[in-house]
Design a protein that fits this description.
Oligomer: heterodimer
CATH class of the largest domain in chain A: Alpha Beta
Number of helices of chain B: 5
Radius of gyration of chain A: 24 Å
Number of strands of chain B: 5
Order of helices and strands of chain B: HEEHEHHEEH
CATH superfamily of the largest domain in chain A: FAD/NAD(P)-binding domain
Largest sheet of chain B: 5 strands, mixed
Strand content of chain A: 15-25%
CATH architecture of the largest domain in chain A: 3-Layer(bba) Sandwich
Helix content of chain A: 25-40%
CATH class of the domain at 26-125 in chain B: Alpha Beta
Strand content of chain B: 15-25%
Radius of gyration of chain B: 17 Å
CATH topology of the domain at 26-125 in chain B: Ubiquitin-like (UB roll)
Helix content of chain B: 10-25%
Largest interface: A-B, 36 and 30 residues
CATH architecture of the domain at 26-125 in chain B: Roll
Strand order of the largest sheet of chain A: 3-2-1-4-18-17-16
Structural class of chain A: alpha/beta
């Protein structure tokens, strides 16, 4: 909309540093939340910004998702932690959207609310037997070995079987396979949760199948992780030569994507490497392509999985998109296993009062601006409400993807501020942080400040020193809160 | 003014050495941001471009602080001659470049480009990330 220069001056005045603070709340303290906070504080000197997170610990999946043997990937928390030095920033841990404070309450007390709470649930297959014991979502297993307080008791049974099937071939699937097959001694000096290390030491798992619906050309993992798993000591990696055959469409796909080319090249090398290359292989990793799960079956124990029924697939092009999908062939086979991990994607959870697209599992939005009416026509922007990260884009990408995602959302907020799209909402006096403190006090909620988190951080690091670990994670809600409130 | 030891190339080197920063073991590096704004800095031989950027308040991200575990310090070498003077990227750097936004034929990680005399005058563009974060045809990156 075209603004007269007087209007532009007026809105710039509203947003200038001298007069009113702009109160912003970011819900979720993972990479999306922190990058958004950093960019908002930098772009707008009048902003006072709070990150709220339901956990007592910040950093989201950097803490609870990145594998313990990938410490360099976690270094980004140093950058996020520097935000705490900014007087215009506060962290509120142990504050949950929905229970501690509602979305409408946040919209009342803040001028701008950015939802960055990610995807804390799982896609499901919807096939028979999915509820049998021994079947876990990747997220649960990863949270378990990373010491997430929600998954301390997940305790997968690693002693009752020698075979695990991982459905999916993305980097999370590779993480799971690597953690299962790695010599536990290699994990002793990482920040893996102690209960997981103890369990892995007694594990009887010797064989892992990584099962994908499509072929090596479409494998979702990336070169670094693949290279890593191929160089595991005492692990023999297997792939069927026949699976490596490429169709013309496959060749086209490879031409378009550098990532896929390099992954395919690495997978091809597996087929040509001889067993004698490895000195003594006690463990096996099998890449299984063109198979999709049809059902899970029990054996003697009716409640526990012992077989996965797989349907062979072939690839078919989606219209003229160049993208190929897996189609069932009607031929089936079975794989015996006592443990299954579904690594088929995370899923976001809806919240009361928030427009949500159930099918895509995201909040309908236009470059981060939340759309009412689930994005269907006619739809309007919900003024002052934005999304960033997985909740905005779906659960894909790396940590850095959120950097650019945050840039886009902050860009939309800035545009809206400059063009008066948030008026008159923005000119209202709002209590911001004081309002949140008030609500939390009324409900007797003891939030965890960044300084409180630093007490947890220090204890974990000190406990870790006793075991040559970078940290010994505290994995129970009670203990986390106890240390935070000391 | 030139000293003919080892031919014209060496002559240029020695010639420059008597004036300018090569005498102080520093090279000139220009960063160009996504809006086209330029900043020229002096970088000591042996320092990485990432470190140099941070010392000069240039907005180059470095999530993993130079440990080859991310692609946020991605820079585009604007002059192919300078690009060719760099050592080939290792597998590890290429693995990270795979994931870089706005990857080009002359892209490198800033933490792996180390200042040396042959790079004097190098121009590095910071990728316009949002340009590649297109809604249409956007291919989600793996994780």
């Amino acid at each position: 909309m075209a603004l007269s220069s007087l209007q532009k001056w007026f809105f710039r005045g509203i947003c200038s540093a001298s007069s009113k603070p702009l109160h912003v709340c970011v819900v979720g303290g993972g990479p999306a939340g922190f990058y958004t906070a950093e960019k908002m504080l930098k772009a707008h000197k009048e902003v006072q910004l709070d990150i709220i997170d339901r956990l007592p610990t910040p950093f989201g999946l950097v803490r609870s998702g990145v594998a313990p043997d990938h410490p360099e990937t976690k270094i980004v928390v140093n950058q996020f932690s520097r935000l705490a030095e900014n007087e215009r920033f506060s962290f509120f841990g142990n504050v949950s959207l929905g229970t501690s404070v509602s979305l409408s309450e946040l919209c009342d007390i803040y001028h701008v609310v950015v939802l960055a709470y990610g995807a804390e649930s799982d896609r499901i297959l919807g096939i028979p037997g999915e509820d049998l014991n021994g079947i876990h979502s990747a997220r649960e297993f990863v949270w378990w070995y990373n010491g997430h307080p929600d998954c301390k008791c997940v305790a997968p049974e690693l002693k009752t079987t020698d075979t695990a099937v991982v459905l999916g071939q993305g980097n999370v699937a590779l993480d799971i396979a690597r953690i299962l097959l790695q010599d536990p001694a290699e994990l002793e000096r990482t920040d893996i949760a102690e209960h997981a290390l103890a369990s892995l030491r007694e594990s009887s798992i010797r064989k892992v199948y990584l099962v994908g619906r499509r072929g090596p050309v479409q494998a979702a993992c990336t070169a670094k992780e693949l290279r890593e798993i191929l160089s595991l000591k005492h692990v023999q990696v297997h792939i069927q030569e026949a699976d490596l055959v490429k169709s013309p469409l496959d060749e086209e796909e490879l031409k378009r994507s550098r990532i896929q080319r390099r992954v395919y090249d690495l997978l091809s090398k597996i087929a040509s490497s001889q067993p004698s290359d490895h000195v003594s292989c006690e463990r096996d990793l099998h890449f299984v392509f063109f198979r999709r799960p049809a059902s899970f079956l029990p054996c003697n124990d009716a409640n526990k999985v012992c077989r996965v029924r797989l349907e062979k697939t072939f690839l078919k092009e989606n219209g003229a998109t160049g993208r190929q999908s897996a189609v069932g062939s009607g031929e089936f086979e079975e794989l015996e296993c006592g443990l299954v991990f579904k690594s088929i994607g995370y899923k976001s959870l809806p919240v009361d009062g928030l427009p949500f697209n159930d099918q895509k599992g995201i909040v309908p939005n236009d470059r981060g601006r939340v759309l009412s009416n689930a994005g269907k026509e006619p739809s309007n922007f919900v003024p002052g409400l934005y999304v960033v990260g997985w909740l905005k884009r779906g659960p894909t990408g790396i940590i850095a993807t959120n950097l650019y995602c945050a840039e886009e959302t902050v860009g939309s907020i800035t545009e809206d501020l400059q063009q008066g799209a948030l008026h008159p909402h923005i000119s209202l006096d709002k209590p911001g942080r004081d309002g949140l403190l008030h609500i939390l006090q009324d409900k007797n909620i003891r939030f965890v400040s960044f300084k409180d988190w630093e007490k947890i951080n220090t204890k974990e690091i000190n406990d870790g020193k006793l075991k040559s670990k970078p940290r010994e994670k505290i994995t129970s809600w009670e203990e986390l809160q106890e240390i935070a409130t000391q | 003014m030139s000293v003919f030891i080892g031919g014209p190339k060496a002559a240029c080197y020695f010639g420059k050495n008597l004036f300018g920063d090569l005498e102080h073991n520093r090279i000139s590096v220009t960063f160009v941001d996504k809006d086209g704004n330029e900043k020229e800095i002096k970088v000591p031989i042996g320092m990485s471009m990432l470190e140099a950027a941070h010392e000069n308040d240039i907005d180059l991200e470095g999530a993993c602080e130079g440990s080859l575990a991310c692609s946020t310090c991605h820079v585009i070498v604007m002059d192919v001659d300078h690009y060719n003077k760099l050592e080939d990227p290792t597998d590890e750097e290429n693995d990270m470049l795979d994931l870089a936004f706005g990857l080009t034929e002359t892209s490198r990680l800033g933490c792996q480009v180390i200042a040396k005399p042959e790079l004097d005058g190098i121009r590095l563009a910071l990728p316009a990330a949002t340009r590649n974060f297109a809604v249409d045809g956007y291919v989600p990156k793996p994780h």
